[in-house]
Structures are given as C-alpha cells and as structure tokens.
Amino acid sequence: MLNLKGKTAVVTGGSRGIGEAIAVKLAGLGADIAIVYVGSEEEAQNAKAKVLEQGVKVELYYCDVSDFAASEETVKKIIEDFGGIDILVNNAGIVRDCLVLSMKESDFDSVINVNLKGAFNMIKHTYSHFMRKRKGRIISISSVVGLNGNAGQANYSASKAGIVGMTKSVAKELAGRGVTCNAIAPGYIETDMTNALSDKVKEQVAASIPMKKRGKPEDIANAVAFLASDEASYITGEVLRVDGGMAM
Ligand SMILES: NC(=O)c1ccc[n+]([C@@H]2O[C@H](COP(=O)([O-])OP(=O)(O)OC[C@H]3O[C@@H](n4cnc5c(N)ncnc54)[C@H](O)[C@@H]3O)[C@@H](O)[C@H]2O)c1
After folding, report:
1. Is the pLDDT score of 193 beyond 90?
2. Which domain covers residue 201, as residue numbers?
3. Of 39, 178, 198, 214, whose Cβ has the fewest other Cβ atoms within 10 Å?
4. Is 156 annotated in the active site?
5. Which residue in 62, 156, 188, 234 is the catalytic one?
6. 114 CB less than 6 Å from ligand 1?
7. Nearest to residue 217, comparing CAs of 13, 34, 2?
8. Is 248 among the domain residues?
C-alpha cells in the first residue's frame, strides 16, 4: 500500500479535472495538499472540500504559474504554511487549438507560457528546497501529443514535448541529490478540457484508442501517486504514457 503520510504535495491546476483527482488521490494516501490554481473560486473550494474529506491539511493558492515572481511568492508561502514541500505536481495547462495557418502569436505564447514556462517556474522555485532536503519528487503532466504531435495543436504539443525534454534534463541535474523528476503523458481523458470537443471528434478519437474508450482523471492520479511514492525511488527521467495504448 502506497503511503504519503507526513508529506506535502503541491498540485498546480488542482482545482478541477485531472489536477483535482491527483489532489484527492495523494490526500487519500495521507499527503497534505497545496492547490495552486487560477479561474473559478467555486471550483477550487469544491476541490478543497473533497481533499478535506480525506482528513489532511489543504490550502488554496490563487497564482498564475506563468508569472515567475508570483510563482516564487506562492512557493515561499507554501513552504511557510506547510513547513516544506516533498512532491511537486506540474499539472496546470491550457489549450488554444487551431491550425498554424490561423494561430495567433498570442495563442502560441500563452500556451507555452502556462504549460511549459509554468512548470519551469515551479521547478525553479522549489529546486534549492529539494536539493537541501536531498529528497523530493517532481512529476509533470505532458501529453501523448507531445510525443506524437497533433494537427491543430502545434502550440500545445510543443509545450508538452518541452515538458519531456525539461523533465529529462532536471532528472539528470538532481539524480545525485535523491530527487526524482518524471513526466506522465496522458492520452484522451474525460475532463472539461476534452468535453469542449465536438461529439464527432470525441467519437473519432475514442475509436482510435486501442482500448476504445477515454481515460478517467483517476487513471492519471494513480500513476502520479506511484511516482510520488517511496516505491518509485529508483525511477527518474521517465515519461509514462497513461493512454489506453493510444501512442504505442
Ligand atoms: N484532458 C486530457 O485529455 C489531457 C490529455 C493530456 C494531457 N492533459 C493535461 O493534463 C493537465 C490537466 O488537464 P485537465 O483536462 O484537467 O484541464 P482543466 O482545464 O480541466 O484544468 C486545468 C487546471 O489548470 C489550472 N490552470 C490553468 N491555467 C493556469 C495558470 N496559468 N496558473 C495556474 N493554474 C492554471 C486551472 O485552474 C485548472 O485547475 C493539463 O496540463 C493538460 O494539458 C490533459
């Protein structure tokens, strides 16, 4: 049985979808939870309530992870509030899908800034804390489209491929310090992000998955829980697909 008692996990984008499932799962294994989010306060309060049901400490931090200074302040505040950080989950992400033909510069910049630079900012500001502790877990949510590409997602797939490269580099930098850094590449998961797709696209994508179905946020949360645990202490620089075989 995985056990995260006594540990503190930071989950960016933990206010809904995959991030909320990760926060609830890690809390169920005993970890205290810091949820970093933007957007709906109501969603964040709902996520907080679900985490609280697991009987752990939980706090909400409104912070745009693409903002370097704000991320630094938030990390400092979390360390103050919880006494330290053991697990960082970079899950915050956005999409601005369209063909390059009609993609605006701002569509490209905003996706790279949240998905890739946001993960960098959080890693940057927890880096020395983890080094000093000589222990830690960094888990970033990439995507199968970061491995294979996808028409209409040049910005998003670039950000998710960037996560893969950054994960392997940070894993090499911190391996000697007892800190692991891994990525998870989800396939097609049932959340608000994918619910925005048309029914036709949803059916087409599901049909292309060897398991013939969409995954659930909990499928990603289970993989995060394993990589966050002591049982995964010899795994670093890995990119774990959780995709029903989609990107085989
Ligand atoms: N849903 C899928 O099929 C799928 C597939 C592959 C990868 N992913 C990735 O999984 C992660 C979660 O996806 P989801 O489907 O749950 O998305 P979602 O849109 O339901 O949730 C996104 C979360 O990110 C947070 N967020 C967005 N911008 C932020 C910012 N600038 N600063 C801080 N927080 C911010 C939001 O507050 C929200 O909590 C994303 O990185 C996404 O790219 C999702």
Report:
1. no
2. 8-242
3. 198
4. yes
5. 156
6. yes
7. 13
8. no
